[in-house]
Design brief:
alpha+beta; 8 strands; rod-shaped; single chain; eight-stranded mixed β-sheet; 280 residues
Length: 280
């Protein structure tokens, strides 16, 4: 029955239009017939016919010619209001929340695309990032990163030091004793990617380092020292899969104090780090 509802509505609409047209024509015919005739009865018929014709004609022609135009105008005005307010909701204040979790690889490439000088990414193991280079088609992520390096952008990846007592204790606390080994393997794979890029002779440089500071969230900083800087961060929430943790985008121009806190955290992690050997 529900599948036939649109067809029934169209049929009723056509029936109403036909009925209105009949009433209109009948009213006009009676008005012409009674016009100029003497007597109270004819005068009454004439007035009734004119009333019926006018009462039907006005809504009929409105429905036929004006309703769609007014609806289109309303929708255009509504779209304009939404377009004006959307920036304030989605990042107009320098904060955008992706509550659904990790974004698509192509979207991540788009986030990094505008980098002018430097990118720094921090994570306990950066396994998802590593898989973008190792498992995904080159066009999804490797090629965009290659373009960044060809423009002279410096890229640094910071992974939790697998030999650090903080990393070992963190792995024990979450019941994942293999985490340090995975972090080490991920770092070596990234270092291998960096070595391959270096062999291509790009002006930009990719570096992978072990940080002794335990990352408490995933962080991606784009141009941390420029006014155009952007930050993407996702907290490590106990009991929540990393892929489902909310993601927060921060624009330095709108949130300078908040942005600087993340820059200070990343610089501290960089200062307390050591290079990764791809062959180790």
């Amino acid at each position: 029955m529900e599948n036939n509802a649109p067809g029934i509505r169209r049929l009723l609409s056509r029936f109403r239009a036909a009925l209105a047209l009949c009433v209109l024509l009948a009213g006009l015919s009676l008005a012409l017939l009674s016009n100029g005739r003497d007597g109270f009865g004819w005068a009454f018929v004439n007035e009734l016919a004119l009333f019926a014709a006018a009462g039907v004609a006005v809504p009929f022609y409105y429905d036929l010619f004006l309703r769609d135009a007014e609806r289109q105008t309303f929708l255009q005005e509504l779209a304009g209001v939404i377009d004006e307010r959307a920036p304030a909701v989605n990042g107009g204040r320098g904060l955008t929340v992706h509550a659904e979790g990790r974004l698509a690889p192509t979207e991540k490439a788009d986030f990094l695309e505008g980098a002018q000088g430097e990118i720094v990414e921090v994570g306990v193991a950066l396994r998802s990032l590593t898989s973008l280079f190792i498992s995904r088609p080159a066009r999804d992520f490797t090629e965009p990163v290659r373009r960044l390096l060809s423009r002279g952008v410096r890229i640094t990846y910071l992974v939790a030091d697998p030999e650090s007592a903080l990393t070992i204790e963190y792995a024990r606390s979450i019941g994942d004793p293999d985490l340090p080994a995975r972090a080490a393997e991920s770092a070596r794979q990234l270092a291998g990617v960096a070595r391959d890029f270096a062999a291509e002779g790009h002006p930009g440089r990719m570096e992978v380092r072990f940080t002794r500071q335990l990352p408490t969230c995933y962080l991606s900083l784009v141009d941390p020292d420029l006014d155009t800087g952007r930050c993407r961060t996702s907290p490590y929430l106990a009991g929540v899969r990393r892929a489902e943790s909310p993601v927060l985008d921060i624009v330095r121009a709108h949130q300078p104090q908040l942005f600087e806190r993340y820059v200070a955290h990343v610089r501290h992690a960089q200062d307390d780090s050591r290079p990764v050997d791809a062959d180790a």
